[in-house]
Amino acid sequence: AWTRGSGSTPTYDGAALARKGVIVVTTNYRLGAFGFLAHPELTAESARHASGNYAILDHVAALKWVQKNIAAFGGDPGSVTIFGESAGSWSVNVVQATPLAKGLFHRAIGESGAQFARTARLADAEKGGVALATAVGADSLKARRAVPAEKIQAVQSFRTGVNVDGWVLPDDVRTIFAQKKQSDVPVLIGSNANEWTTLSSPAQFPKTIEDFHGRIEQQFPGMAKEFDAAYAVKSDADIASAMLGLGRDTTFTLEMRTWARMVTSAGRPAYLYQFTRVPPGPNPAWGAYHASEIAYAFNNVGSRPWAQAADRQLADTMSTYWTNFAKTGDPNGTSVPKWTAYDAAAEPYLDLGDTVTSRNHLLQAQLDFLQQAQQPRQPSR
Q1: CB of 137 within 8 A of CB of 154?
Q2: What is the largest CA-CA distance in the chain?
Q3: What's the pLDDT band for 381 if we cut at 50, 70, 90?
Q4: Do 5 and 290 form a contact (C-beta atoms < 8 A)?
Q5: Strand runs labelled E in 231-371
Q6: Tens of pLDDT along 174-210?
Q7: Shortest CA distance to 180 belongs to which of 192, 189, 193, 171?
Q8: Rounded-to-integer distance, Cα 192 and Cα 132, Å
Q9: What is the distance between the alpha carbons of residues 68 and 72, in angstroms, rounded to a whole number?
Q10: Looking at the annotation, which residues are catalytic?
Q11: In 3D, which of 95, 20, 16, 14 has the Cα closest to residue 62?
């Protein structure tokens, strides 16, 4: 969530991808307040009259480094693909939106995350920075810069996020895409079947159907009938499944379908997937949980003690799709099943599971409901 992490962990070991003929560059960037703190004083000292989107500027700087240096490693600066998962996928989505990255990359892969919900305005983001300054007891820019990093990191109330600053983001991500002003590149994007199992606590779910209906009426006023058609709950036993599905689709599945639709409406291909393989260990009850596809995309499941033949085969197939796309903008090839590009009528997508299967209309009833429910909250421009 743009709050913690590192690119130097074994999770992102790119050796297996490199063996398929690509060069993998993994970069770090500023996180938490260091990556996203907006503040009126920071804005005032900026020649661009902007603050807060420092993590995205780090991404742009990394892409400029690649343009300048990748040929020394045998790479082609005219054939650059960016890809990331979760907050990394947020980053890919925002980098595709920012005009500062145009011409620096040529394809994009996003796994489980996009930023099509309304983006904060700079003035609102600055309020968060003022609150953080108060929390650390620093009443000037000079004083804040003297605060130990650990003390800033310890402020739990600060929320990371990009803002419409007029420079990095001249408008909402959704609006930039709707106006076809994003980097005009093909995308390979998708999410997992059970994203919400490791990101939620069942203890926080309603316990009775009466409480559940009250929660839904509060969240979707006047749309109880439409909700029930998409996420049927007939008894208390159905509540957890509905809540897990709602969290998954609101946060992930709908965002990825929106991304696919935005790109295809601009005339570029989008390849949509859902990852459904349940890793056999160590927690199969989580299902195809958030981030479980990473080891497969990097073709790194072979070293896992739980890996079965089906896992190794899927990892080889997925990594071939990913590297084919990185090379050409098309994941297809002679050694993998056909992957049909997305279109809004047939809505094809690839099910990456125990077998690799072409399907259509991913969770259509659920996503159409959520799209209808969210429309009043979306930017009108």
Answers
A1: no
A2: 64
A3: very low
A4: no
A5: 270-275, 348-352, 356-360
A6: 999 999 999 999 999 999 999 999 999 888 899 999 9
A7: 171
A8: 34
A9: 9
A10: 86, 195, 290
A11: 95
The token duo for 270 is 């989008």
Q: Identify the CA nearest to 253 among candidates 227, 266, 272, 239.
A: 272
C-alpha to C-alpha distance for 74 and 163, rounded to whole angstroms:
36
Predicted confidence (pLDDT) per residue in 2-42, tens digit: 998 888 888 899 999 999 999 999 999 999 999 999 999 99
How far from 285 is each of 282, 288, 289, CA to CA, in Å? 9, 9, 9
As given in the structure block, the two tokens for residue 349 are 């997508």
How many other CB atoms are found less than 10 A from the CB of residue 298? 21
DSSP string, 67-103: HHHGGGGT--TTS-EEEEETHHHHHHHHHHH-GGGTT
Please name the helix (run of DSSP H) or strand (run of DSSP E) that holds residue 112, with its range, or none: none
Distance, CA of 360 to CA of 351 (rounded, Å): 10
Structure tokens at 304: 């896992």
Pairing of strands 356-360, 348-352: antiparallel
Cβ distance 140 to 281 under 8 Å?
no
Q: Is 359 helix (H, G, I), strand (E, B) or coil?
A: strand
CA 376 – CA 372 distance, rounded (Å)? 8
Q: Return d(Cα 364, Cα 253) in angstroms, integer.
A: 10
Distance between CA atoms of residues 241 and 243, nearest Å:
6
Residue with tokens 């599905």: 245
Block residue for tokens 């601009």:
266
Alpha-carbon distance of 117 to 376, in angstroms, equals: 12
Other Cβ atoms within 10 Å of 305 Cβ, number? 7
Tokens 């439409």 — which residue? 226
CB atoms within 10 A of CB 166: 13
Tell the burial category of 3 from Cβ atoms under 10 Å away from its Cβ (0-12, 13-18, 19+): middle
pTM: 0.95
Question: What DSSP state is assigned to residue 289?
Answer: B
Q: Is the dihedral of CA 308, 309, 314, 315 positive or negative?
A: positive
- Rounded to whole angstroms, the Cα distance separating 141 from 40 reads 10
Which residue carries 């125990």 as its tokens?
A: 354
Which neighbouring-strand residues pair with 11?
none
